[in-house]
Amino acid sequence: xxxxxxxxxxxxxxxxxxxxxxxxxxxxxxxxxxxxxxxxxxxxxxxxxxxxxxxxxxxxxxxxxxxxxxxxxxxxxxxxxxxxxxxxxxxxxxxxxxxxxxxxxxxxxxxxxxxxxxxxxxxxxxxxxxxxxxxxxxxxxxxxxxxxxxxxxxxxxxxxxxxxxxxxxxxxxxxxxxxxxxxxxxxxxxxxxxxxxxxxxxxxxxxxxxxxxxxxxxxxxxxxxxxxxxxxxxxxxxxxxxxxxxxxxxxxxxxxxxxxxxxxxxxxxxxxxxxxxxxxxxxxxxxxxxxxxxxxxxxxxxxxxxxxxxxxxxxxxxxxxxxxxxxxxxxxxxxxxxxxxxxxxxxxxxxxxxxxxxxxx
Length: 361
What we know:
By secondary structure, this protein is of the alpha/beta class. 40% of the residues lie in helices and 12% in strands. Helix 4 runs parallel beside helix 5 and helix 4 packs across helix 14. The longest helix is centred in the N-terminal third of the chain and has 21 residues.
């Protein structure tokens, strides 16, 4: 049987329980996502990551750690990184200084996480900053200052600089949220955003960075947004978006990781409410390589929904409703870090790290 571990799970606390270990050892689990509740200090985080790797060394340890308001670890020495809009504002004054600073931010972000055992941060945000459009309308607040700039060209160059910094720290990257979440007002965590623009308009603007960065992106996270002029399903559940457009037309070769299956934008599809298993099967069949289910470990009954997904996806595989993909597994493994990481003490006195800190806005 082809091996493929597509699920990314989370845990409730700051160390693994016996139940956590059992779930992470499941052959369909390929990763773990960390949240602020899993953080106490650097020593604890490093210990937790070592525990996770002791379950299975190939588990991908991930986190949403972008800078600004989306930064899970902020104390005990972690650098407070500016929101990405700060680099866009810097660009308007000095483009070269902005690209240098973005590279420095990527290196600091990646090196600090890797020093504690984290493999991958879901960054950079490639959504455009539509906070105030030409008509003066206020658009996406869930993206807002997480975006580099309104201009797709500036966004692409700053994102590529940040990804270069991540690469220097030995970390892969994840561009999000394909083909663009910045234009819609609704938050896909709680609603079902709809973007009524044409495919041509989206490809010419919001999705342009994905083509320009197709040789640089390690992974892509699609948006839980419906683009009805293209497909009735949200992008992360649409083979039209993922296979035909992202891979076929834009030439992307890396991993596709769906956004959180527990978000509202992933549960209401085609007028029906899907179970987590149904959502996972739909996303995987549409072209996703990995699917995260977040925050169910802290829900009632000890995170029963996680076990239901594990059992449900295994049953779907047995029944032929979903087939494991060797190519997907290769793309997952390619996201693991390359080369050893500097430990925290060595990093603090490393010349490149110290120089990078001086360049941050």
